[in-house]
Amino acid sequence: MNDCGKLDQVRMEAERVSLHVLGLAETRWTSSGQVNTNGWMLYYVGDDNVHQRGVGFLVLPKTVKSVLKVQPISDRIITIRLNAKPKPITIIQIYMPTTEADDEEILSKYAMLPKVVDECPKKDRLVVMGDFNAQIGADRHHMSCGRYGVGEANEHCPAVRKTEKPWIDDLAIQDLILQRRQAKLNNFQSPEYRHLCKAVKTACRRAKRKWLDDVSAEADKSFRSGNSKQTYQLIRQISGRKCPQAGIGIKDENGEILYEAASIRDRWTEYGTQLFHSVAPRLPQDERRPELLEPEIIMLSEIRTAIKKLKAGKAAGQDGIYGEMIKAGGETVVQAMKEIIDNIWNTGEWPSDWTQSEIITLPKVPGTLECSKHRTISLLCHASKVLLEIIRCRLAHYIMPQIAEEQFWICCW
Q: Whole-angstrom Cα distance, residue 26 to residue 132?
């Protein structure tokens, strides 16, 4: 494709056969990027210096809007993720070295492919295609083209697998599994097959134990360093717990199932009002001006400290502003927050976005239709958390002396 007019020829051929996504190998384009050609989008990656190797994808204009991510791995591997139904699709396009290349280069490129496969989302439909420059063979050991291959697999034929068990990544275990599979095809009652079954179970048991020890040690390290997000992610890997799926509807107060989106929204509004309605007696209003109650002004150092405490990776509130955006603003954001907070401190009126939150419902039981069997999460504006943190720190000065030693362990100040 390095010659003039080659890209147009490839595009016209893709249009003739009505392709949506066309994988390209040996494009011979340098660097990486994307090119629009008559509405079609070409995503490519190649060598930085010479016009050799290179892979890419040519995507139909109406399919471009379904592209979620394009990730160039090297000048021989590129991946693309498409939004599709019922599941997203991840396509890996490869161009492997020929047998004339050095063995070290061949092995390194083929060793890279399983790592790329493991990094793909587990729930996606996976397609691995391209020019392997290898003879696949007619057996089904490599799960590439099934029994319809030609001849026998050569030594460079890749073994592409996507396993749900992360501890089965050792080549020795995979070779044992292949030997057991072949022994089962020959004679599943033979002593060789029974011996291989025991060997596979023993190897997998040891590998799983080692994997659990490593993940547990990493989780303990992240917990001690205060990284709670990574800790929960590692614990989720060990437990294997999946998030319960929501039901197709929701029940009203009378037990009838609601299916319409508007009716479900009204039901959640009614339930949320009852859930968060406070029956506690209201304290008498103090008619004194706010500045007389708390003469100290909000200091810039307090705002900076509160902004630093904003956690990363949290969803935005009604204003669509993330905590990372506030942190990245530097002194400009600090001065702006100073003006807003001073206005709130003097008038006692909060911005409307700061007083509203978005309620997210998560089912505790898979497929439940009961509102009471859902967990609610409030998405607050991160800017309001800055003022709330300042107020919390000021209240801690008065509350801490009132907490008994027996209750100190539950204190979060």
A: 12
Closest CA to 318 of 359, 357, 350: 357
Write the DSSP string, 250-293. Answer: EE-TTSPEE-SHHHHHHHHHHHHHHHS---SPPPPPP-S-HHHH
Options 3.40.50.2300, 3.60.15.10, 2.60.120.10, 3.60.10.10; CATH for 1-161 is 3.60.10.10
Q: Is residue 55 scored above 50 in pLDDT?
A: yes
Q: What is the pLDDT of residue 280?
A: 60
* Residues sharing a CB contact under 8 Å with residue 335, sequence separation 6 or more, in sequence order: 300
Query: Which two tokens mark 400?
Result: 């801490």
Query: What confidence tens digit (pLDDT) does each residue in 160-189 have?
Result: 444 557 777 777 787 888 888 888 878 878
CA-based nearest residue to 157, from 177, 176, 132: 132
Nearest CA-CA partner of 329 in 318, 340, 344: 340
Q: Which sign, positive or negative, has the C-alpha torsion 166, 170, 171, 175?
A: negative
CA–CA separation, 312 and 120 (whole Å): 24
> How far apart are the two ends of the chain, measured CA to CA in Å?
64
Give the integer Cα–Cα distance in Å for 406 and 413: 15
Rounded alpha-carbon distances, angstroms, from residue 98 to 133, 142, 145, 409: 5, 19, 19, 65
For residue 147, name the pLDDT band (cuts at 50, 70, 90). Answer: low
> What one-character DSSP code corresponds to residue 98?
P
Dihedral angle of Cα 106, 111, 114, 119, to the nearest 10 degrees: -120
User: In 3-state terms, what secondary structure has residue 66?
Assistant: coil
pLDDT, residue 290, reads: 47
Provide mean pLDDT across the span 293-298. Answer: 62
**Per-residue pLDDT tens for 91-113?**
999 998 887 777 777 778 888 88
The answer, yes or no, to whether residue 227 has pLDDT greater than 50, is yes
